[in-house]
């Protein structure tokens, strides 16, 4: 993941250099008695930001400690973390005692009057932080906001009132405030429908009771959010637990791990989406985002000029037949543009796997070997290495590509891409010196995929993109 930086460096950098006062009273009326905010800058190139708000009577540094203990910060060197601290104010629920609070609390039941003015001011403050990150070059889709208890309430309100669709919301032991101010259902074209939300709650929470959280769940589902998840934790009170923090980490990593897979000739991306779903691969690794592009339609020489979806023209299925170098390179550039887009959106190259079936696998192999990045891995199914003569006989010893994991799968009864062709590709990869190249041959398999192959694919993904608890 690029440069490695230790937790000690993060802590020292934060405490000595990166604690900043929040905005002035003229900007958002929140700075009276404001305590400093804890900010952990990205160790690597800054491409994503997480902003997390604490609960009543707490400070931002407490949640920095929680995220650090669970290794969330260390595992994401390109992410900037912001843990603001609320201003000190008198809280009615606590007999007017002054404490850090994002808004006043009059009671702990859902029918108690809410401090609408205070909630909206804190929501505006959080949206101002979001706006600052966007002005600094971070895409809204690469910004996740969240919070615990009242902090989570502000995060939910800010996400639903923001003019942007963010990368996600982490709502811990909380509720949706001012719920009647939101529509009963979002319109179908509203991009907010795609906002990922993780709501977590303990079944023994004595402060924000579980039934209150379940009302929020009903409300958010009724509005039509497609990527909303509710997690309930047995025996957990108004606190956090290890299992919850692991779920938070997985939720963040859903947008920080990627697999891009290209179909074969005369096919579409959805075919392979269905295939992966049939074997529960996305369900088994929920922290990985899957992309299945579909090729454009072109005339195929091998099929008498018939038009069909294809990544490049095909003159024949034999290693001695001329290859469509121009189109192969264009398709490779297209796949690399997908990779670059994901990197721009905050994904580390080492957390991206590319792959494909047949000609799609050929494009994936070519892309991986010509990319300026060393990726997380390549899935090459029933395929071959195209334009073989354009690659060196052996990579130089210092070339990082040597460490690229490659899983090459082929059936020994393949009548389209003969097993001998695949074996020539195997010899080439081994000759170039790839240390993590694996060739798997399936007895009796034709130009298709098998159960065992899909199981091997899942193992490869889990090993190449391990869950980072």
Counting DSSP H or I runs of 4 or more residues, the number of helices is 13
Give the CATH class of the largest domain.
Alpha Beta
Largest sheet: 8 strands, mixed
Shape: elongated
Strand order of the largest sheet: 1-2-4-3-7-8-9-10
Any low-confidence stretches, pLDDT <50, length ≥5?
A: 1-28
Organism: Adineta steineri
Protein name: palmitoyl-protein hydrolase
Main location: cytoplasm
Subcellular location: Cytoplasm; Nucleus
Description:
This protein has 13 helices and 18 strands. With 469 residues, the chain is of the alpha/beta class. The protein has two domains: 7-253, Rossmann fold, CATH 3.40.50; 258-464, 3-Layer(aba) Sandwich (Rossmann fold), CATH 3.40.50. The chain has an eight-stranded mixed beta sheet with strand order 1-2-4-3-7-8-9-10, sandwiched between helices. Strands 12-11-15-16-17-18 form a six-stranded parallel beta sheet, with helices on both faces. It has a two-stranded antiparallel sheet with strand order 5-6. It is elongated, with a radius of gyration of 26 Å. The protein starts with 6 loop residues before the first helix and ends in a 5-residue tail after the last helix. The model is unreliable at 1-28 (pLDDT under 50). Its EC number is 3.1.2.22. Pfam families: Abhydrolase_2. GO terms for molecular function: carboxylic ester hydrolase activity; palmitoyl-(protein) hydrolase activity.
Topology summary:
Blueprint: H1 7-17, E1 19-20, H2 25-28, E2 37-40, E3 48-53, H3 60-69, E4 79-83, E5 88-91, E6 97-100, H4 116-135, E7 143-148, H5 150-161, E8 168-172, E9 197-202, H6 210-223, E10 228-233, H7 242-253, E11 258-262, H8 269-278, H9 281-284, E12 289-291, E13 297-300, E14 306-309, H10 325-344, E15 352-357, H11 359-370, E16 377-381, E17 406-411, H12 419-432, E18 437-442, H13 451-464
Parallel strand pairs: 3-4, 3-7, 7-8, 8-9, 9-10, 11-12, 11-15, 15-16, 16-17, 17-18
Antiparallel strand pairs: 1-2, 2-4, 5-6, 13-14
Helix pairs in contact: 4-5, 10-11
């Amino acid at each position: 993941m690029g440069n490695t930086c230790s937790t000690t460096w993060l802590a020292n950098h934060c405490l000595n250099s990166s604690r900043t006062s929040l905005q002035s009273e003229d900007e958002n009326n929140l700075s009276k008695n404001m305590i400093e905010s804890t900010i952990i800058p990205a160790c690597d190139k800054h491409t994503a930001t997480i902003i997390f708000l604490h609960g009543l009577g707490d400070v931002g540094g407490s949640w920095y400690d929680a995220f650090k203990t669970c290794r969330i910060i260390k595992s994401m060197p390109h992410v900037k973390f912001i843990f603001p601290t609320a201003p000190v104010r008198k809280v009615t629920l606590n007999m007017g005692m002054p404490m850090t609070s994002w808004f006043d609390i009059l009671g702990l039941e859902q029918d108690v009057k809410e401090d609408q003015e205070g909630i909206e001011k804190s929501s505006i403050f959080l949206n101002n932080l979001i706006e600052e990150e966007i002005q600094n070059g971070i895409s809204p889709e690469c910004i996740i906001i969240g919070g615990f208890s009242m902090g989570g309430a502000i995060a939910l309100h800010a996400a639903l009132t923001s003019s942007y669709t963010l990368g996600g919301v982490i709502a811990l032991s909380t509720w949706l405030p001012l719920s009647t101010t939101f529509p009963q259902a979002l319109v179908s074209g509203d991009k907010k429908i795609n906002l990922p939300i993780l709501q977590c709650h303990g079944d023994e929470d004595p402060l924000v009771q579980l039934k209150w959280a379940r009302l929020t769940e009903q409300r958010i589902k009724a509005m039509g959010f497609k990527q909303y998840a509710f997690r309930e934790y047995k025996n957990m009170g108004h606190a956090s637990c290890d299992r919850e923090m692991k779920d938070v980490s997985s939720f963040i990593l859903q947008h920080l791990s990627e697999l891009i897979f290209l179909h074969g000739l005369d096919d579409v991306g959805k075919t392979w989406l269905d295939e992966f779903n049939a074997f529960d691969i996305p369900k088994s690794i929920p922290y990985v985002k899957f992309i299945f592009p579909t090729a454009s339609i072109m005339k195929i020489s091998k099929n008498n000029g018939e038009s069909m979806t294809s990544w490049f023209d095909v003159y024949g299925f034999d290693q001695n037949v001329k290859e469509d170098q121009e189109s192969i390179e264009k398709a490779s550039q297209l796949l690399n543009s997908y990779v670059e887009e994901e990197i721009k959106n905050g994904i580390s190259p080492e957390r991206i796997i590319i792959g494909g079936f047949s000609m799609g696998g050929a494009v994936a192999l070519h892309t991986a070997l010509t990319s300026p990045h060393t990726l997380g891995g390549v899935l090459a199914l029933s395929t071959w290495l195209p334009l073989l003569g354009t690659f060196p006989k052996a990579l130089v010893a210092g070339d990082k590509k040597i460490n690229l994991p490659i899983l090459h799968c082929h059936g020994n009864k393949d009548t389209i891409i003969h097993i001998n062709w695949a074996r020539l590709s195997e010899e080439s990869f081994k000759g170039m010196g790839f240390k993590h190249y694996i060739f798997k041959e399936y007895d009796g398999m034709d130009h298709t995929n098998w159960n065992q192959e899909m199981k091997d694919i899942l193992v490869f993904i889990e090993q190449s993109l391990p869950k980072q608890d």
